[in-house]
Design a protein that fits this description.
Keywords: Hydrolase, Membrane, Metal-binding, Metalloprotease, Protease, Signal, Transmembrane, Transmembrane helix, Zinc
Protein name: Leishmanolysin-like peptidase
Shape: elongated
Helix content: 10-25%
Structural class: alpha+beta
Radius of gyration: 28 Å
CATH class of the domain at 18-41 and 54-253: Alpha Beta
Largest sheet: 6 strands, mixed
Number of helices: 14
Distance between the termini: 26 Å
Organism: Erinaceus europaeus (Western European hedgehog)
Bound molecules: 2-acetamido-2-deoxy-beta-D-glucopyranose
EC number: 3.4.24.-
Family: Belongs to the peptidase M8 family.
Length: about 725
């Protein structure tokens, strides 16, 4: 369950203040079905052909939508319903795709078939132990309506058959075995509805539950219900819905108090069946009665995050009743598995959550896919306690109710609290227009902008009290508007930033020029009075974010592909840019791409820009670079650029990527004979260039890219049509 944070509640939802967890409640009501013993893999043929282990493969989540009559018109028109479903399905696909780069399992052999519950379809069993059909169904339940999963009726095609057994002899099939679902390790049923749960708690965006397990107790199927009214509203962006889906999917895949007790201890890894046992202890209460998740990877990961040696003893869970399926928000603010949703931009698929999936024993986890969690990093074991958060010992927390910056510096914030913080206060994004990275939050052109703010994808929040200083003799401004020399308080302001090297950056205030901003220092800006504080340890953190791109490796990576992304930029009319300007623009475009991809800079190398504003960059994932496979990022960026062009602000002008001129140049050729050639072979692409009514054709040589090893990235299969074109799956 994800709840909107209270500040959004105020906007969106009337009277919904409670933050009770629906996942807990829905999962509790679920009967978790496992295959009957006779279908355990120890008896199955596939097990015999793979006696001991199966190499983990990326988790294949198949999503299904089954016609769900849109209920009662309580929300919006039919058009809204269809739009909501489209949004939900797109988000579910994207979340599933993203998890392929994170979780791997020994793949399900053959089609995935779900189980039927004998207690549902069968009224009586043969009770004589000497009967050949002992314990088989002797009498059907006439009221049996099939299997369902959180309100979704599972189609017979996804289910095993069932039979009625005479006292002796062969069974009489009532329902044949379904065809099952090919290429699936998990089935996700998707439903968009205005359910009573949505109705009762207006802040609930979605909820999910797991309904079936495999013979190792790994979740096999679940349902996500999206509350229709949230999908019909434009408050939530596509990225928000993807993030909400990811949260719910992670519940259904194992991050749930009802599944914690089924987690397995697999010392030899999840691929080696038979060497695992159910974990003895997953949760325990601490001395104050707070529940902790105590498994080894999770504890180790938290200790590393807090910068303490020797390991922590467990990760606190949110207090939400006798059980809990979320991290404690005071400690892990910004993690995808806290109970309240605070927008996709402020949510991370963090290392501690991924550690939990490792501890489940069901998954092989790609820890490089983890996103850095800034909150509390290196703050020690006392961090995030109700007893320490108000003492001023950590600048992640605040006191009072002043204005400042949210800890990620993407937003302005007000010092406030919400129920999960249990009295602790932090700078929370304002209800309206606090995002520095949203251009539309800026003042309309021509409006007075004394603090010189710039709202832009590359803008960040800085504590400042800058005011335009009027130069002597500037008579265009009436004296009444000349700022008084009163010490204005520092507040959150939005200014453009640019990383220069690891941890270092410069800032741009409107009408001034780029000024270096040494972390921890207060700086002055030419033409402005007042100060700007440069935050320490919050911006341009990863070395990947800096300009210092490592030189390409001598030996090319075998585990990832080298891809190329190329597109045309449209800029203001005028003479073509000089070399220096193009370099600046190249850098700005690269930063915008990194920010759009939500990943590290380490994926990108050799960015360049032609005089005709064709931007090209190579992509691959070097070892140690956190995030999804380069192919996944490449595809996501392509789709994203098609949906929404990149907008870059450079030297006072705005440049936009043109999606019709997005050049797809990655190519996958599995033939080994081409491997040696693949890097040197150039293809010629024709780009249609339309300029001021005249058409020009430009020939461009682009690097032809192929897989660098015979075993190509599995996850790229199926995302690509026969012609090497990307398409959405
Ligand atoms: C947010 O602020 C803008 C500009 O001040 C205003 O037009 C808009 O109505 C506000 N929205 C809400 C929901 O308050
Ligand atoms: C800005 O803030 C600093 C530090 O609080 C203060 O000394 C200074 O007077 C303020 N300047 C302006 C112009 O408000």
């Amino acid at each position: 369950l994800l709840l909107l944070m209270p500040m959004l509640l105020l906007l969106l939802l009337l009277g919904a203040a409670s933050s009770r967890c629906l996942h807990e409640e829905t999962q509790k009501a679920m009967h978790l079905l496992s295959p009957p013993l006779s279908q355990h893999p120890s008896n199955a043929r596939s097990y015999l052909t793979h006696p001991d282990s199966q190499a983990p493969q990326p988790l294949r989540i198949q999503t299904y939508h089954l016609g769900d009559p849109v209920s009662d018109g309580a929300w919006g028109s039919e058009g809204d319903g269809a739009r909501g479903l489209t949004r939900a399905l797109a988000a579910a696909e994207e979340a599933a795709q993203r998890l392929r780069g994170v979780l791997a399992v020994p793949p399900v052999q053959g089609p995935l078939l779900l189980s039927r519950d004998p207690e549902e379809y069968c009224h009586a069993l043969w009770g004589d132990p000497n009967s050949p059909n002992y314990h088989r169904c002797s009498l059907l339940n006439p009221g049996y309506r099939g299997e369902s999963c959180l309100g979704i009726k599972i189609p017979d095609a996804h289910l095993r058959g069932y039979a009625l057994w005479p006292e002796q002899g062969p069974p009489q099939m009532v329902q044949q075995e379904g065809a099952g679902v090919q290429n699936a390790d998990f089935l996700l049923y998707v439903r968009v509805a205005h359910t009573s749960k949505c109705h009762q708690e207006a802040s609930v965006i979605a909820y999910a539950a797991c309904c079936q397990l495999d013979s190792d107790d790994r979740p096999l199927a679940g349902t996500i219900v999206y509350c229709a009214r949230h999908l019909a509203s434009s408050r939530l962006s596509h990225d928000d819905i993807v993030m909400v889906t990811l949260h719910e999917l992670l519940h259904a895949l194992g991050f749930s108090s009802h599944l914690f007790k089924k987690w397995r201890d697999c010392p030899s890894g999840p691929a080696v069946r038979g060497h695992c046992s159910t974990r003895r202890q997953v949760m325990r209460p601490d001395e104050r009665g707070h529940l902790l998740l105590t498994t080894p990877a999770v504890s180790h990961s938290l200790a590393k995050h807090l910068g303490v040696l020797g390991g922590s003893v467990g990760v606190p869970l949110e207090e939400e009743g006798p059980l809990s399926s979320h991290w404690e928000a005071r400690l892990l603010q910004g993690s995808i598995m806290t109970a309240a949703f605070n927008g996709a931009q402020r949510t991370r698929l963090d290392p501690i959550t991924l550690a939990a999936f490792e501890d489940s024993g069901w998954y092989h986890v790609n820890h490089r896919a983890a996103e850095e969690l800034l909150w509390g990093q290196g703050s020690g074991l006392q961090f995030g306690l109700v007893t320490t958060c108000g003492t001023g010992s950590s600048d992640f927390f605040c006191t009072g109710s002043g204005l400042g910056c949210h800890f990620l510096h993407l937003d302005k914030g007000r010092c406030s609290t919400h129920p999960e913080l249990e009295g602790c206060r932090m700078y929370m994004p304002l209800a309206n227009g606090s995002e520095c990275w949203k251009q539309e939050n800026g003042l309309p052109a021509g409006a007075e902008n004394l603090p010189g703010e710039i709202y832009h994808p590359q803008s960040r929040c800085f504590l400042a009290n800058l005011t335009s200083q009027l130069l002597p003799g500037d008579e265009a401004v009436p004296p009444s508007q000349i700022p008084h020399e009163v010490g204005e308080e520092l507040t959150g302001r939005c200014y453009l930033h640019q990383c220069t090297e690891r941890g270092m950056y410069k800032v741009l205030v409107a009408g001034s020029h780029w000024t270096p901003c040494p972390p921890g220092k207060a700086i002055q800006i030419p033409r402005y009075s007042g100060l700007l504080l440069c935050p320490r340890g919050r911006l341009c953190r990863a070395k990947e974010d800096s300009n210092t791109i490592p030189s390409p490796p001598a030996s090319l990576p075998t585990q990832d592909l080298l891809l190329q992304l190329s597109f045309q930029l449209a800029g203001p009319p005028g003479p073509s840019l000089g070399k220096v300007e193009r370099e600046e623009l190249t850098e700005a475009v690269l930063q915008a791409l990194v920010s759009r991809g939500g990943t590290s800079r380490c994926y990108f190398r050799s960015p360049r820009m032609t005089t005709s504003l064709v931007f090209t960059v190579h992509m691959w994932r070097p070892p140690g670079c956190p995030g999804p496979a380069a192919g996944v990022l490449h595809r996501d960026l392509m789709l994203s650029l098609q949906r929404r062009p990149l907008e870059v602000y450079c030297r006072g002008a705005s440049f936009t990527s043109e999606d019709s001129k997005l050049l797809v140049t990655s190519d996958q050729n599995h033939s080994a004979t081409h491997l040696h050639l693949s890097l040197g072979l150039c293809l010629t692409l024709l780009i249609l260039m339309g300029a001021l009514g005249s058409m020009a054709y430009q020939k461009r040589a682009t690097l032809r890219v192929g897989p660098l090893a015979p075993h190509h990235s599995q996850e790229l299969q199926g995302t690509r049509g026969p012609a090497g074109e990307m398409r959405e799956v």
